[in-house]
Specification:
With about 270 residues, the chain is α/β, with parallel strands linked by helices. The protein is built from nine helices and eight strands. It has one domain: Alpha-Beta Barrel (TIM Barrel), CATH 3.20.20.150.
């Protein structure tokens, strides 16, 4: 059975952020991810992880001014110094939290953008991030995101993400495959998994189209969980969804997945 990590930015919002670690552990999670850790001291986050026996499997590098609508700086000309400062800050947190993966957000393209220019800068910045992360044994991730949720986002398709991965040429660069985004942009999730699995560094899940629990909507997650097992995926599945009526109340899908896994001999 796949291993599930609670996304503490979207889940367990019923309590303040630092209390969500305990809530996730109480619900049976053994790992967590979140968008950004930077509002809290590394020591406080490390203490919360240790106290509740949790692993932190992923967070994002600084995205620029999130509250102003920015969604990353890696492909934005003129922001190179800021990007490099963000890499250093993210690695400082990752070392404190023992986080093995960091997601680099690409950024939003302005109207009439020269995509070739942005792409070249994105590749250069990713090479820098990968070099710095490799010193600490950390994997860098890039993620295609649908333009319905984030209009003008630079990276949208699996094919383009893997082409960029190849252009960067760093062994510690992988693609973060969020099944929610894949389904909205291009569908055919199972075949995308089969095609790209060796280069997938992290998987995320949510129901489509509402981004609620994965047992709602049009995606057959039990089938995909079985496929990941069949193909030997041993990474985490980040539960990056918005609970429809309450986090704990919506965890029936997790109980069903665990029951299915145990019935198949998992433990």
């Amino acid at each position: 059975m796949p291993k599930f990590a609670a996304n503490l930015t979207l889940m367990f919002n019923e309590v303040p952020f630092l209390e969500r670690f305990g809530a996730a552990a109480k619900a049976g999670f053994r790992a967590v991810e979140f968008l950004f850790p930077y509002e809290h001291a590394p020591a406080d986050l490390a203490r919360a992880l240790q106290e509740h026996g949790l692993q932190n499997v992923l967070f994002n590098m600084p995205p620029g001014d999130w509250n102003a609508g920015e969604r990353g700086t890696a492909s934005l000309p003129g922001r190179e110094a800021e990007f490099r400062e963000g890499v250093a800050e993210a690695l400082r947190y990752a070392q404190a939290l023992r986080t093995p993966r960091l997601h680099v957000m690409a950024g939003l393209l302005p109207d009439n953008a020269d995509r070739a220019l942005h792409r070249a800068l994105y590749i250069d910045n990713l090479r820098h991030a990968c070099r710095e992360a490799a010193r600490h044994g950390i994997t860098i991730l890039i993620e295609p995101i649908n333009t319905r949720d984030i209009p003008h986002y630079f990276l949208n398709t699996q094919a383009d993400a893997h082409a960029i991965r190849e252009a960067v040429g760093a062994p510690n660069l992988k693609v973060q495959m969020d099944f929610y985004h894949v389904q909205i942009v291009e569908g055919d999730i199972a075949m995308k998994v089969r095609q790209y699995l060796p280069h997938i560094g992290h998987v995320q899940i949510a129901g489509v189209p509402g981004r609620n629990e994965p047992d709602t909507g049009e995606v057959n997650y039990p089938y995909l969980f079985g496929l990941l097992d069949e193909l030997g995926y041993d990474g985490w599945l980040g539960c990056e969804y918005r609970p429809a009526k309450g986090t704990v109340e919506g965890l029936g899908w997790l109980q069903a997945a665990r029951s299915s896994g145990m019935a198949a001999g998992e433990n």
